[in-house]
Amino acid sequence: MHGKYTMPRTKQTRFCAVGIVMMQIVTTICSATAVRADEANPVPANASTSVPNFSLLDYRGRHFELNRANARVVVLYFTGNGCPVARQQLPKLLKLNRDYPPQDVTFWMVNSVPQNDFNEITLRMIAQMGLNDKLAQFIPHDEPGLDAISRLNSMSKLKGIQAESQILGDPETFKLQVIEGTLGPLTLLRDEQQLIAHHFGITRLSEVVAIDTVTKTVIYRGSIDDQMKAGGQKPAPSRNYLVDALDEFLHDRPITVRRTAAEGCLIQFPDRLKKHRPSYVKEIAPVLRTKCAGCHQAGQIGPFPLGRYEDVLQWSAMIQEVVLDKRMPPWDADPHFGKFSNDSSLSPAETQSLLRWIELGLPRDEGEDPLAAPFDPQVSWKLGEPDFIARLPQQEEIPANGLLDYRYLQPEFVMPHDGWLRASVIRPGNPQVVHHILVRIIYPADYAGPRADAYVFDMWAPGVPPSICPADTGRFVPKGARFQFEVHYTTNGTVQHDQSEMGLYLSPQPPKMQLDTRVAETRDLMIPPGEPNAEHLSMYCFQRPALLYNVGPHMHLRGKRFRAQLLYPDGRRETILNVPRYDFNWQVGHIFAAPLKIPAGTWILCTGAFDNSESNPRNPDSKTRVRFGLQTSDEMFMGFLTVADLPESKPIAVTNTDAPTDQNGKE
Q1: Residue 628 reports pLDDT greater than 60
Q2: Please, which residues bridge with residue 439 across strands?
Q3: Is the confidence at residue 21, as pLDDT, over 70?
Q4: 49-110+192-269: CATH topology
């Protein structure tokens, strides 16, 4: 079944040529010294046989999580494009990927050498040398004197490939084309902080770790086979360690060999993961206080407190898991696209220090505990007393247990006169059970002025700052307007009550630009039963030059991923937000560090997918066909946009027939 694989001679030549080029261009020289495969390396102290859940992104910006893998075994292959030993194993991995059904084994390559990440020079060289068959078939190798870039430029003239501007003018598209053509169906994940490699105690590239996805234990780790030897390699392997272990496991037989030595290049870890001894008082506690304790304190929505060292000690295993899985702090935006002022994630240095501190046994140095210091007293209104208050008409009772539908509640407040707002603040009456609030404006029937496209006025969720209008902008509220609160309550084991409210702050004078919330949405949703990746898209056209301040995705329990791209009038495409793992529990807007200036005629394309399968733990019913609706058991697909048209700009006429035809929403 798993016989010897012989690479065709043409591909052998390509691999050899690319190997020479790669060795010339990588900045890190790896040692390919091998050790005897039958002399198992001692397992590093930080190596783990019990595997916590973890998450990584691939080079497409897609999310991969161990707990969501559908195969019986996940095989991690730790690699780096600068290591010749690791590269030589690629044909073996491709064959193994073909041989094993995906429901039995899935293979994840893990790039844990950040300095050897795929850069533009490497990608161009790979494509030019012909390793990438998808691109190489379009490169005329018989034209003398053409260098790599010239050959790639000539691709746009040949039939069957995207235009030059879309390949060479879009680095991300170019990168994906090359990687896909090189790796084929294999998945390549980015372990840029080296957290996963360090957690497993990986010391050499080309090591595999095979994980039983049910028990979350390692069933085999080491070399793929015994072909590599110290100082050289055999013509063919005599023992196929990984294949033997997989076959024994899949046939419920005892695994004969569970550990062998790896023979690839040594991995260099940063001192922060290897030698650093973080201070609890000076490093760890301040990070936990800033990024975690705001919600994890009495009276807030966090399920347990983090108000002192002893709390952290008790919950350290859970903290380690949610950090490795990137569930906490709640921020799911892909760091490779966009810069956001409200990014609540841990920085790479903070993440490495926290996990290193837990690995060292949570040492407590001398000094006052920063976590134990009291927070500033809660003030009634963070921006001072508001000009108007829209309050829920009565106390809402929240039961002790159960999954609750949204509640749509309308305060009695009516706007007494036209007004421009400089800010609005939603104040939850009971943060222990208020999950989030969306406020919509209800315009009076006789109002003939411009209306916000989305009718969404404001929102609140834990950690979301007050809605302060950016400089020179304001929100207009006409006389007679009312508000509707869409409130999502959660239960906490006891009966609770809530009467949330919103404060409105008037601007002393009209602003230069009106701030609106607009929406790119589709209601044409048809999500089949059991479908794990139901893709949908929506679009919105900017008819005037505008500033874009914020993008917020909105789906319900089956929401899986979301991406926003700008399609410019000149044909350029730019990804401004990628949310690889959409989490219904944390619906936050993404506020750009600097507003994006959008030319008139630009379209925003929102693409995403729903998971209506049994593997989605939040799915209320995988056997039903899902359509658009207001409740969480229904679905929505929206991209909320906070926008201000530039002053003295004229709109352009746009119809649906003007929408770009190259939407390419699939990922």
Answers
A1: yes
A2: 458, 485
A3: no
A4: Glutaredoxin (3.40.30)
